[in-house]
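To: structure subgroup
Subject: Chain for Friday's discussion

All,

I'm putting the inputs and outputs inline so they're searchable in the archive.
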Amino acid sequence: MENIQLNIENLLEKYDQENKLELYFSVLKEENKKLNLVSRETIESKLLQLAAESLLPFEYIKQKSFDNYIDIGSGGGLPSFPIILTHDIKQSTLTERIGKKAVSLERMKESAKLKNMTVINKQLEECKFEQSFDLITMRLVKLNNRLLTKISKILKKNSIFIYYHKPEFNIVDKSLSVVTYSYSVSPDSVDKYFSLITK
């Protein structure tokens, strides 16, 4: 497995030429005063890194515009807000099971003036969708076979699910293919992973 060296500055310069992420960071900092969405260390020194990590998989995805995007377990809006603010996405859905975090995401949506976004205060397993999605992301939620089955059902054919980790089990679903990448932020940092799961 090839190890990617993440250059935070270069990546953000490429995807965020209009500095839209600055607005998200300021909104997140305000929300974080009311509710602990991300750690103090993250707020003080790691927002740029986490935004770059959110966008890194798109270096390996040919598709650059998406009709329907869903993020599972959205928390403080990473990776969803960096993706939505830097890509052509017609409609986005954020799921968050914790009520206070879902309310916070609604306020962040309003502050960032993101009209084509829906926040759902439920776990993915409880949701019913009329449409399927051509982009799905999940970070800090553990992937298991049951959850993957649900994701596979709502993922459009020839579309992509970005899992910001590596699966800890063998994916036997014949309709899915998986490629996992490792990357590091600096030569002495611990490797991190993301997986591109396609249908």
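Points worth raising on Friday:
Strands lie at 3-5, 65-72, 88-95, 117-120, 133-138, 155-163, 177-184, 192-198.
The mean pLDDT is 94.

D.
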